[in-house]
Amino acid sequence: MRIGFLGPAGTFSHAAVHASPRTPADAELVPAGTVHATVLAVQSGTVERALVPIENALEGAVNATLDALAFDAPDVRMVGEEVLAVRHCLVAAQDVPLAAIRTVLSHPQANGQCQDFLRRELPSAAVLPAASTAEAIRLVAAGEAPDPPAAAIGTALAAELYGAVVLREGVEDDASNVTRFVWLARDGAVDDAADAPGGRWKTSVVFSGDGDGRPGWLVRCLSEFAFRGVNLTKIESRPARHRLGHYLFHLDMDGSIADPRVAEAVAALEIHGASTRVLGSYLAA
């Protein structure tokens, strides 16, 4: 099996794939340059599975994943999820005092998860984005980061892989920081752990409608779940990309789409003029 992940080697996505019991021992791991490219690799059939970040405890939703699923990957479904503890390190090409660092490079999510540390310990450093935490460390280790001396935020694994030095461990703003990842596959695939006993199921959907400009439209849509006793665990809005002020709504809920209450609530969205797509039903991590 070919499994896609946000590369290069040493990212948290890479670590999550290795830590997952769903990853076959003989799997071929295929890195992609962006989250969007990782999702599209499943859509195109380049890989059979992919593991992508979708939500962080400190920074919230990973919009690149939500948008890729909603707009660019109509045949891709969520078939599982993982939760990974996230521990960030400040890394440089060589041992250097923090006061000398002029630039800090990392993925925007990682920069956001460490903003208190950056404001407190590196107030004068420019904080710049990179395609991934591992790519940031690779650039710093290779002396390719702008305006040196530079540092990067990422994993201790990436520091080891690229020959860099860990200056400080645990620079995330909260020690309980975790990221939720979702397994993706082409439509028709099922959760590899679907037969596990006693598991808790979740369903993810995305919906939108021209009625979102009418008072109470969203409340009426969401009430379909409340009336049937379906617990919504997450609600996220994203721009609908056709007119300012219109949105897509991503919902996570307890229960499988095979549960009549869940299926009826999702179907009832059409009563309110909503266009709905089930992104997947899967076992919760």
From TrEMBL:
Pathway: Amino-acid biosynthesis; L-phenylalanine biosynthesis; phenylpyruvate from prephenate: step 1/1. Keywords: Amino-acid biosynthesis, Aromatic amino acid biosynthesis, Lyase, Phenylalanine biosynthesis. It catalyses: prephenate + H(+) = 3-phenylpyruvate + CO2 + H2O. Pfam families: PDT (PF00800). One of its GO terms (biological process) is L-phenylalanine biosynthetic process. One of its GO terms (cellular component) is cytoplasm. InterPro entries: ACT-like_dom_sf, ACT_dom, Chor_mutase/pphenate_deHydtase, Preph_deHydtase, Preph_deHydtase_CS. Its EC number is 4.2.1.51. Residues 2-186 form the Prephenate dehydratase domain. GO terms for molecular function: prephenate dehydratase activity. Residues 206-283 form the ACT domain. The keyword Lyase applies. It is an enzyme of class 4 (lyase). Gene3D superfamilies: 3.30.70.260, Periplasmic binding protein-like II. The record marks T179 as: Essential for prephenate dehydratase activity. PANTHER family: PREPHENATE DEHYDRATASE P PROTEIN, PREPHENATE DEHYDRATASE-RELATED. This is Prephenate dehydratase. It comes from Paraconexibacter algicola. The gene is pheA.
